[in-house]
Amino acid sequence: MLMWKVRWDKAVQKQLSKLPEHIVGSFYDWAKAVETDGMEEVRKLAGYHDEKLHREMQGMRSVRISKAYRVFYYESRDGTIKVAQVTKVSKHEYKK
């Protein structure tokens, strides 16, 4: 099994500091699950609804950490470690 790491920068940490506590907890739960079980196993969990993004966000993926909030990330490799680089945690904007 490949080893996974979830990484994010100061901008994402700042976003997290402004979110409700239960959303931040869900984010950390997802990150821990990825690092413990691997992305392939976490993707099997229907609740996260992990999906590829299209158009201007092509190459990225998103997961649900609640009905309203999403984590946006892309995958890369750092030697033998696969990395989920989080770029944004935000409220999902539904199109009408």
Summarize the structure.
With 96 residues, the protein is an alpha+beta fold. It is built from 3 helices and 5 strands.
Notes on the protein architecture:
With 96 residues, the chain is α+β, with helices and mostly antiparallel strands. It has one domain: 2-Layer Sandwich (YaeB-like fold), CATH 3.30.2310.20. The chain is built from 3 helices and 5 strands, in the order βαααββββ. Strands 1-5-4-3-2 form a 5-stranded mixed β-sheet. The longest helix has 17 residues. The protein is globular and about 35 Å long. It starts with a strand and ends in a 5-residue tail after the last strand. The relative contact order is 0.24. The mean pLDDT is 93.
Q: Identify the strand order in the major beta sheet.
A: 1-5-4-3-2
> Shape from CA axes?
globular
Mean pLDDT: 93
The H-and-E topology, N to C, reads as EHHHEEEE
**Count the helices. How many?**
3
The unreliable regions are: none
Span of the ends, CA to CA: 41 Å
Report the helical percentage. Answer: 25-40%
**Count of spatially separate domains:** 1
Indicate the structural class: alpha+beta
Beta-strand level of the residues, as a percent range? 25-35%
User: CATH fold name, please?
Assistant: YaeB-like fold
If you compute it from the alpha carbons, what radius of gyration comes out, rounded to the nearest whole angstrom? 13 Å
* CATH architecture term: 2-Layer Sandwich
Topology:
Blueprint: E1 3-8, H1 10-17, H2 21-37, H3 39-43, E2 51-52, E3 61-64, E4 69-78, E5 81-91
Parallel strand pairs: 1-5
Antiparallel strand pairs: 2-3, 3-4, 4-5
